[in-house]
Amino acid sequence: MQRNSLARRRLGAAALGAIGASAVRAPAIAQGRPTKLTIMSHAVHRAVATGAKGGDSTAAWRQRTGLDVEWITFSVEGVHERVYREASLADGNVDIAFLLERYGGPHIATMFEDLGEWQKRDPIEHFDEIGEGMKAAHTYRGRMIAIPYRHATHGFFFNRTFMGERGIAVPPRSLEEIAELAERLTYARGDGTRVNGYALSMDDPSAMVDLVRAFGGEFITPDYRVVCNEPGAVRAATLVRDWYRKGVLARNVMSFKTEEVITAMQQGRAAMTNQPFGRFVNYNDPRQSKFPGAIDVVTLPMAAAASGGVAGRPAPAKTSVWAMAIPRNARNKELSWALIKELSSRESTIRAAVNGNGPVRASAYDNSEVRQLAPWSDFEKEVLPTARLVLPGFENAAKAMDIYMEELQRAMLGQAEPQQAMDAVKARIEPLLPRT
Amino acid sequence: MRPRPAARAARALLAALAVAWSAFPILLVALSSFKEGHRIFETPPSFVFVPTLEHYERLWEKWPDFFANMANSLAVTFGATLLTVATATLGGYVHARFRSRLLTGAAFAMIVVRMLPPIVVTLPLFPVVNWLRIHDTHLLLVGIYATFFVSLSTWIMKAFIERIPRELEEAAFVDGAGLRQILRRVILPLSANGIFAASVFVLVYSWNEYFFALIFTTRAAKTAPLVISEILSTVEGVDWGLLFAAATLQLLPIVVFVMAAQRYVVAGLAAGSVKG
Amino acid sequence: MHRLRPVHYLMIAPAQLMLAAVIILPAASLLWLSLERFTYGRSPEFVGLANYAYILADRAFWRATLNTFLVVNVVVYGELLLGLGMALLVAGWIPCRRLVVSALLAPYAITEVSAVVMWRYMLEPDIGMINYALSALGLGQIDYGGDPTAALGVAAVMAIWMHAPFTFLILYAALLTVPNELVEAARVDGAGAWQVFRHVKFRLIVPAILIALLFRYITAMRLFAEIWLLTEGGPARMTEVLAVYLYRHAFKYHDFGVAAATGFAMLVLSLAIAMPYLVQMYRRMLRDAA
């Protein structure tokens, strides 16, 4: 009995020891060199940085340094939630964070390294090739906290197979035509599957703002005036409300994030949408899409009424800039910067562009490989000069975007008229704007 | 006393409905994890199909960390259960054997404190966790999970220990046993059922917990439910087959455990029973 | 050995310490946090009751409160009825008892994330099993993405599905302890099944019912993942419950002061709901201790 209990006690102690050991996280640095870098981003960044078509931009670096790269990916909103939470800790787990400009703000900027300083000490090659506007989108009070990696500029996608089935030969040249086609493209196919004319992501205004601008309106001007209750913007809200009522938009469209829109297009549940040009790769990938080769992209046209008589004139496309940042509490900042430099090189930019990325270097558009393997890049290049961010950056931007979507959805549900809803948006957002 | 045939038939039908309600969603996902990808959403759905392991293979390929995270779940579950049962047994003994105003107050405090929704404590805990540098550690999750179940477990242990006749302890005491030996030789073996019942709840909770794992882990201590929610939102559209494979792997051990343990838990709860 | 000695206080200490460190102290500091305004990259500043003014004036807060109230009650009483039904069924004659009880307990072992996966699979618009069947029968569909009531309903059903086994367990165990003699005596007196239940069994399991209700009220208020993973509180923030409201303000808007105020409101609400049960419980405990 004595021996038994002694043995049991030893076993218990061993078990507790094992838990204790696994419980306390030994910081990687305490053990010597780190074995990997952790990147927190959206899945699209991993896809374009390591895709098979264009090649893996991290491969050469990984071989040189012997380090692994671990990608932790989330949804657009999710990645920011996690990154900021991690960045606020005393000790960080994240070495490189991908940030979207509309989820940033001056209060966030203090948690990240001033990469302008790093650029001075150890510069990225041909840094001036990267668009100034893109750099500015991630600069707060003089601190450039992230290096632009991707611009997601919207184009207009449509499914040629469906258009053929409905007898539509030519892509629409005005927003009014799109509105008309959307209704015709809401139908039941021969095999009984139902198609929705349009798919719209509704977790934030990034897709909606295209429609607003195509009608000649705007959400918030760069000098922080809220103008979403003016005629152009209200017309866009009314269109979306009517679409929802007529079934052009899926019944559960209000829970659509960009992921659901992609699935809808790939599965043939939607006929048209506005999404970043680079999604062309996803929509025509035979492994994921049921319509490879049938989904095409052009620039989103303005409404005829707002285009000043120019047929097919492209609307100011929505663009967003994803950029790479180093949290202040990261443990391997030298290595982080080294990898950022690698990912920012001309070569990596080309590789990513072929994989469907919107390149931040203008020179990438002149590259023959890009033009051949990324057939949308001509359109992208065309709209880039007039492209606009979703909204100017400020501390309460997240709340402002939520308020806009909330009121828009209320209009869609019939709880308010579009004009009323947009007036409410203006009234609720104005107190949140930065006091200039 | 066997009821009449009509009543028997009615009861059997109700039992079948109850079983269908409970088991159908689980079986659905488990079976569908073996269905070929393009057949998952076929209409009308069919339950006859050629099974495939493709989703499990893709899970291994695309989410290799999933298995490491299952190991995290295991470690945290084991730790939380151990901690809960240890504290609950010690506390349960005292509450069972003694009465005092202080003890009643302490017991009542344990119940009141459980009224608070867990989400409420995450905000204040965050800076503390940060300062102590225990973010993303197993220890933190073990501590949190155990705390949230120590009340229920103590109450269960108290009920079980009360049923152990005091005479046994008195006899041991007379034989010269100290408190520690009484606990080890008398209480522990005789309350084994109670320990089991008490541990089942915290075990299931720890294995399945999502919210605290979401807030307090990144990578090192990430648990399986968190990974499943990440698979639920991927840019290529939801890969349902892969999702089902992950969900099936995560639920399999615990469902089997609960089903196997039910006899003891029911008997235990009934015996230790609920006087209030 | 019948007197409380210091070592006994040491034995109850671990539990009390854990509760104090993880729950009591943080909850207390929540009040202080709620009186401050703080976010990332800025040191906290005292703003008095401004955060409370904010949430009390916020339409979304009141909707979240209403939703929480509705969902919690539907869930708790739904579970009670279902759990009681299952317990009564299993306490009597059923075929393959072990198998049936095992199956009934299985949902308790499922994490809410997987439950969302299962129910979303069945409720996917047009092609999910349930919606396909409903639309084939011409009954429309359950549109959890566009219809707030449907979404809250689905979240409630998921919660009931997952947690009714817990209530079932407690009530079943209690039913097993109802002495047979009482039941026989009632039957001999000519009571039918319903009367036996009402006057004999029910009376005796009331304490268990109260325990079950108490525990379930506690846990139902924390409903988060069911809503968050289903709709994230949409559309138009109409399916938000208080936990989602808090999460959104903390981790999307980085407005930790408002989140803390919401947390404190939830704390008060929980205590208020539990108050009648707590009073009863305290009285009973004092009686037992005497």
Please give a handful of descriptors for the protein shown.
heterotrimer; A: 436 residues; alpha/beta; nine-stranded mixed β-sheet; two-stranded antiparallel sheet; 19 helices; 11 strands; disordered N terminus; B: 276 residues; mainly alpha; 12 helices; 75% helix; 0% strand
Write up what this structure looks like:
The complex is a heterotrimer of chains A (436), B (276) and C (290). With 436 residues, chain A is of the alpha/beta class. Chain A has helices at 2-23, 43-50, 59-65, 76-87, 106-109, 115-121, 132-137, 160-165, 175-184, 208-214, 231-246, 258-266, 280-283, 333-344, 346-354, 368-373, 377-383, 397-412, 418-429, and strands at 36-42, 68-74, 96-100, 139-140, 143-144, 146-159, 187-188, 194-199, 270-276, 295-298, 319-325. The longest helix of chain A is centred in the first third of the chain and has 22 residues, at 2-23. Helices cover 75% and strands 0% of the residues of chain B. The relative contact order of chain C is 0.13. Chain C is flat. The model of chain C has no long low-confidence stretch (mean pLDDT 86). Chain C has helices at residues 6-34, 50-57, 59-91, 97-105, 112-123, 129-136, 148-176, 180-188, 193-220, 225-228, 242-251, 256-289; strands at residues 36-37, 45-46. In chain C, strand 1 (36-37) and strand 2 form a beta hairpin. Chains B and C meet through helix 1, helix 3, helix 4, helix 5 and helix 6 of B and helix 1, helix 3, helix 4, helix 5 and helix 6 of C.
How do the SSEs of chain B run, as a string of H and E?
HHHHHHHHHHHH
Low-confidence stretches of chain A: 1-7, 18-31
Mean pLDDT of chain A: 87
The portion of residues forming beta strands of chain A comes to 5-15%
Question: What percentage of amino acids of chain B are in beta strands?
Answer: under 5%
Radius of gyration of chain B: 23 Å
> How many strands in all of chain A?
11
Question: Largest inter-chain interface?
Answer: B-C, 101 and 107 residues
Helix content of chain B: over 70%
SSE string of chain A: HEHHEHEHHHEEEHHEEHHHEHEEHHHHHH
> How many helical elements of chain B?
12
The value of Rg of chain A in angstroms is: 24 Å
Tally of individual helices of chain A: 19
Structural class by SSE content of chain B: mainly alpha
Overall morphology of chain A: globular
Short description:
The complex is a heterotrimer of chains A (436), B (276) and C (290). With 276 residues, chain B is mainly alpha-helical.
